[in-house]
Write a structure and sequence with these properties.
single chain; mainly alpha; two-stranded antiparallel sheet; 20 helices; 4% strand
C-alpha cells in the first residue's frame, strides 16, 4: 500500500498534495468499479441479442474509455487543479460551460451515482441481514412527480443503510486526504482481486466444460453490419459506459496529486486499461458459465445471461460454477466493491464543488478547507446531504438515465477542448500530449456523437429531459455570477468606507 505523506505548506490553509501514483490509480479503478459490471450484462444481452454483439459492445466501451482517458491526460498534466474536468471546460469554453458541468455533476451525476451505489450496498447486505430490504418501509413521506413519473419518497431499511454509508464515508474523508486514500487503496485491491477471482473461476470452468452449442450457433445472430446494427450496439453501450464511468474522478483531485504532470496521465491510462481488460474478461467468464440465450421464467440455466434473476449475472455465473455458496461470495464481493466505489466518488466529487465555490459559483462556505485536516469538509457534507435526499426518492436510477445524453456530451466537449486549447494556448506547457492526436480524439468524438444521435432517436424523452437538467443550470449560473459581482462590490464599498 502507498504511504505517501501529505506535503504540507505551513503558509497555506488549502488542499495538500498527498496522492502518489498508486493512490491516483486506485482512485481511477475504485471509482469505476461499482455494481454495474455485476449486473448490466443482462440488459446488454437482451438488447443486442447475440454473444458476438455482446462482446463487441464491451470492446467498444473499453476502447472509448481508454481513448478518452489518454486524451484527458493532456489536460490533466496541463492543468493539475482541484476540479479537474470542471476546470478544463472552464478554460476551453468559458466559465458557463464549466459551471454547467459542475451543476449537473452535483445535481444528479455524482450524487445520484453515490446514492445508487450505496443502495446497492444495502441491497446485497440484505443477503445476510434480511431486515435490510426495500420492502421494510420505516417511513413513507409521500410522492412527487418528476418528468411525468411519480417518485415515492420512502425510507426503507435498505435506504437507511445507504444513507449511513454515505455519511460515514463523507465524515471519514474529512479526517485527512490520507485517510480517504487509505480506504480507497484497501477496497480497490480487494474488489479487483474479486473480479480477477471471477475470471480465474471462468478459466477453471472452461477447461472441463465446453461452450454451450446454442451460444456458439447463435454467436452473430441478428448482426447485419449495417446502420441498424450499429445503432442497436450504440444504444446498448449505455450500461457498459456507465459501468466504466467515473474514471475522470481522479482529475478532480489534481491539486492534491504529487508530481501531477506525470502521475495524472499515467494513472488515467493504467487505471482505465486495467479495469476495461478485467471487465471484458469477467463477461467472458459469465459467457462460459451460463447460456447466453435464456427465457424469462425457469431455473438458473434456463434464465441464462439475458434473463438472470434480478439481472444478477455475476451471482448466477458463480452459482453455476460453485453451487449455492456462490451467491454469498458474490454478495460479499459486491458489498466490498460498492463500499469502495462510494468512497472514491465522495472523495473526488467534493473537490469539484470546492473549485466552483472558489470561483464564486457555489456557496462560499463550500470553498473553505478544514483548518486541521486540509480537506473540503463543508463540500463533503453538502454533497452527502444531497446524495442522502436522492436515496429517499427511490428514483435516482431513472434520473441517471435522464442525464446519459448530457454526460456523453460533456465528454465530447472536453475532448474537443484539447483542439481549442492547442490553438488558443499553443505556448502553454504540456508535459504530456494526447497519444494518437488528432486521430484518436477525433475518433472518440465521431463515435460518441453517433451514440448521442442513437440516444436521441431511441430514448428521445429521457435525452431531452437530461438536457433540460443541464439547461436549468444556465439561469442558475447567471444568478451565482450576479451574486458574486454584488458580493465583490459590497466588499469594495466596505473597504472604501473604512478608508
Amino acid at each position: 500500500m502507498s504511504t505517501s505523506p501529505a506535503i504540507i505548506n505551513p503558509q497555506s490553509s488549502g488542499l495538500l498534495k498527498g496522492l502518489g501514483l498508486f493512490d491516483s490509480t486506485t482512485l481511477v479503478m475504485g471509482s469505476m468499479i461499482g455494481s454495474g459490471v455485476f449486473i448490466v450484462a443482462a440488459d446488454v444481452g437482451r438488447q443486442v441479442k447475440s454473444p458476438g454483439l455482446f462482446f463487441l459492445t464491451w470492446l467498444i466501451s473499453g476502447l472509448m474509455t481508454i481513448i478518452a482517458a489518454i486524451s484527458y491526460g493532456e489536460l490533466a498534466g496541463m492543468m493539475p487543479q482541484a476540479g479537474g474536468q470542471y476546470v478544463y471546460l472552464r478554460e476551453a469554453f468559458g466559465p458557463l460551460f464549466g459551471f454547467l458541468y459542475g451543476w449537473t455533476l452535483f445535481l444528479v451525476i455524482q450524487t445520484g451515482t453515490v446514492a445508487a451505489v450505496a443502495v446497492a450496498f444495502g441491497k446485497f447486505l440484505g443477503v445476510f441481514v434480511p431486515w435490510v430490504s426495500a420492502k421494510t418501509i420505516l417511513l413513507n413521506l409521500g410522492t412527487l412527480a418528476v418528468f411525468g413519473h411519480a417518485i415515492a419518497f420512502t425510507i426503507s431499511s435498505q435506504q437507511l443503510v445507504a444513507i449511513l454509508v454515505v455519511f460515514f464515508l463523507s465524515v471519514l474523508n474529512i479526517f485527512g486526504l490520507r485517510v480517504g486514500a487509505g480506504v480507497q487503496n484497501v477496497f480497490t485491491v480487494l474488489k479487483v482481486g474479486a473480479l480477477i477471482g471471477v475470471v480465474g473461476l471462468g478459466i477453471w470452468w472452461a477447461f472441463s466444460h465446453p461452450v454451450l452449442a446454442s451460444s456458439v450457433q447463435g454467436f452473430w445472430q441478428g448482426a447485419h453490419w449495417d446502420i441498424a446494427t450499429l445503432t442497436m450496439v450504440s444504444v446498448a453501450l449505455v450500461g457498459p459506459l456507465f459501468s466504466s464511468d467515473a474514471w475522470n474522478n481522479v482529475t478532480f483531485t489534481g491539486s492534491e496529486v504529487i508530481n501531477p504532470k506525470r502521475n495524472l496521465p499515467l494513472a488515467l491510462f493504467l487505471g482505465t486499461t486495467t479495469v476495461c481488460v478485467v471487465y471484458f474478461a469477467c463477461n467472458w467468464a459469465y459467457y462460459r458459465a451460463l447460456p447466453f440465450f435464456g427465457v424469462a421464467q425457469g431455473g438458473l440455466l434456463e434464465l441464462g445471461i439475458q434473463h438472470a434473476a434480478e439481472d444478477r449475472v455475476a451471482t448466477a455465473a458463480v452459482q453455476a460454477m460453485l453451487g449455492g455458496r456462490g451467491a454469498g461470495l458474490m454478495a460479499v464481493a459486491i458489498m466490498v466493491s460498492t463500499f469502495g466505489c462510494v468512497n472514491g466518488l465522495v472523495l473526488a466529487g467534493a473537490r469539484v464543488y470546492y473549485a466552483m465555490a472558489k470561483d464564486g459559483l457555489f456557496f462560499s462556505s463550500v470553498g473553505k478547507v478544514h483548518s486541521k485536516y486540509h480537506t473540503p469538509a463543508i463540500s463533503l457534507m453538502v454533497s452527502a446531504v444531497w446524495a442522502a435526499i436522492l436515496t429517499l426518492t427511490g428514483g435516482y436510477n431513472e434520473l441517471l438515465d435522464y442525464v446519459i445524453f448530457a454526460v456523453v456530451l460533456f465528454y465530447i466537449l472536453t475532448i474537443a477542448g484539447i483542439f481549442r486549447l492547442r490553438r488558443t494556448r499553443a505556448e502553454a506547457p504540456r508535459p504530456y500530449r494526447a497519444w494518437g492526436y488528432p486521430v484518436l480524439p477525433l475518433l472518440y468524438i465521431a463515435f460518441a456523437s453517433f451514440v448521442e444521435l442513437a440516444l436521441l432517436t431511441h430514448k428521445t424523452l429521457r435525452s431531452f429531459a437530461g438536457l433540460s437538467i443541464v439547461a436549468i443550470g444556465i439561469p442558475v449560473y447567471y444568478f451565482w455570477r450576479r451574486r458574486g459581482i454584488r458580493g465583490e462590490a459590497s466588499e469594495r464599498a466596505g473597504g472604501a468606507g473604512r478608508e
